[in-house]
Amino acid sequence: MRAIQITEFGGPEVLRQVELPDPVAGPGQMVIAVDSAGLNYADTHTVENSYLSRAALPMVPGAEVVGRTPDGRRVVALTDNGGYAERAVVQERLAHEVPDDVTDAQALAVVVQGLTAWHLLRTSARLAEGESVVVHAAAGGTGSLAVQLARTFGAGRVIATASTKDKRDLALELGADVAVDGASDGLKERLIEANGGRKVDVVLEMTGGPVFDASLAALAAFGRLVTYGMASRVPATPVRPAQLMGRSRAVVGFWLAHCLGRPGMYREPIAELLTMVAAGRLRPQLGGIYPLSEASRAHEDLRARRTVGKLVLDVRS
Question: How many CB atoms lie within 10 A of CB 198?
Fold first, then answer.
């Protein structure tokens, strides 16, 4: 089968197309004939071995696929890597049937990024009706869905950040009340101004470094900052307990892997999200479709922040 494999850790240049034997399913697993594979920013960390879980070589990256089961069902599924290939092994319990009126790209947007956005708001931030929400990188795969879900879940004010005017305009189109520049300089002041001069209740933060620091400084009493990424690859200033206690603030970490296998945290939210997509109440943004052979170009575009929405590898081309 054709696959994208890495034999050394590094940047996009280490992603190479090769021929590999078809994988074999173990107990509780099945082999999916992959039509499309999803790309996530976390994949760039996996390829350079800078993510939360350490990777082993050689490796086929890719955490999500849409394709056909051995009995012909069309499913979307999480993988333990291996998604950038014509065949992928998945846990049977992590495969979810896709409605006919949901496209491959829409289904792939739901399984990692949509599920992450859902849990950021519902599980980690515990968003209450009327609260203000800041969504960083609001034109990205997770951010563009979080903007829409925050509005659906009753946020009082949705504040988006993005790096360009086009991306900020997209966030406004998706339901944000206001969109501001996401650069770290002056960010605290821009967030407070965007919230009518008041500090904010919830921040969804995936950049790290000075953006994390400014976001924490903009947080109101009893506010929650949910950190779920480290896109800048720059560490934030260490947070001291007194900083949190003195202003009754919380910093909450989120990693989707901890939802797998827990009752009610995987299949049920995915079913809800797919139903919303099928009904037109949630609009995943398709940022680009790349042939399997151009996975390295897709990673280059991701790292350069040239993309919006969901990126997909067309495994059939």
Answer: 13
**Residues composing the chain:** 317
- Within this chain, do residues 83 and 206 fall inside the same structural domain, yes or no? no
3-state secondary structure of 290: strand
- CA distance from start to end of the chain: 13
The string of DSSP letters for 181-192 reads E--STTHHHHHH
Domain check: are 29 and 149 in the same one?
no
Specify the amino acid at residue 111.
V
Q: What is the pLDDT of residues 83-132, one digit of tens each?
A: 999 999 999 999 999 999 999 999 999 999 999 999 999 999 999 999 99
Residue 267 lies in a domain: no
The range of the structural domain enclosing residue 226 comes to: 113-258
Query: Quick check: is 266 in a domain?
Result: no
Q: Do both 137 and 189 map to the same domain?
A: yes
Q: Phi first, then psi: give them for residue 22, nearest 5 degrees.
A: -60, 140
Asked if residue 57 has pLDDT above 90, the reply is yes
Expressed in percent and rounded to 5, the helix, strand and coil fractions of the chain are 35, 25, 40
Tally of domains within the chain: 2
pLDDT tens-digit readout, 197-228: 999 999 999 999 999 999 999 999 999 999 99
